[in-house]
Amino acid sequence: MPEGDTVWRACKRLHQALSGQELTATDFRVPTLATTDLCGRTMLEVIARGKHLLMRVSGGVTVHSHLRMDGSWHLYRPGERWHGGPDHQIRAVLETAAWKAVGYRLPVLELVATDAEDTVVGHLGPDLLSPSFDRDQAIANLEADPARTISEALLDQRNLAGIGNFYRSEVCFLLGLDPWRPVADVDIPAAVDLSRRLMKANLRNGAQVSTGIDRPGQRSWVHERAGKQCRRCGTTIRTASIGEPTRERVSYWCPVCQPGAPAVEPSN
């Protein structure tokens, strides 16, 4: 699933291409928006809120989308070949004189009143990439449930918005925390600060990097490295699902660098 920095970069590209431009054609290919026409309106701005994309259009309308596992927005020049996927995966096309923004495989796509955006993003905690990030509130949100595992707490977008599985796994490794460590036993301010620092650093990259080495196969310490040797101590990286049954996510960790007793039998 794309994480906050990925969504932020996507919004930056869309904003640079579309903001201030009149929409010359719009095509929404979802039943609820099939008759919607935003032609003649101006794209005011495109911003990220956690993992959500908000395209604010003149007339008080916002196009809200969420990429979830494999959604994406692509930009094309007029006449350029589209390559984001087959046509049946296209959910929206927004055109200006200079660009076509094409949304593929968008599981969430809707229009909301701009002054009612809180109905779709109001539940989110402080956005880690926002210039006005409320660090104290994020810490308070995480510490409100001290018995919860740090893995579940970091992934809960109601606590702080933007962290996904990559950052959750890497932050736990870098702080020496096994994924099942309860929040009460974690230096939460340090976890929040490291999460924000990593995400902000990666705004400059085209990939997510926690090791400082932006090369294929060397970008992460533990994430998606199950069965491989720990870069620090050589121990085999383990993996297991963690979280409530309906919201389980795979976690990666080194049992030596992140000591602790897992709550379930690891799969590797």
From TrEMBL:
Belongs to the FPG family. InterPro entries: DNA_glyclase_Znf_dom_DNA_BS, FPG_cat, FPG_N, H2TH_FPG, Nei2_N, Ribosomal_uS13-like_H2TH, Znf_DNA_glyclase/AP_lyase. Residues 221-259 form the FPG-type domain. One of its GO terms (molecular function) is oxidized pyrimidine nucleobase lesion DNA N-glycosylase activity. It is an enzyme of class 4 (lyase). This is DNA-(apurinic or apyrimidinic site) lyase. One of its GO terms (biological process) is base-excision repair. It comes from Kribbella capetownensis. PROSITE patterns: FPG_CAT (PS51068), ZF_FPG_1 (PS01242), ZF_FPG_2 (PS51066). Residues 2-75 form the Formamidopyrimidine-DNA glycosylase catalytic domain. Pfam families: Fapy_DNA_glyco, H2TH.
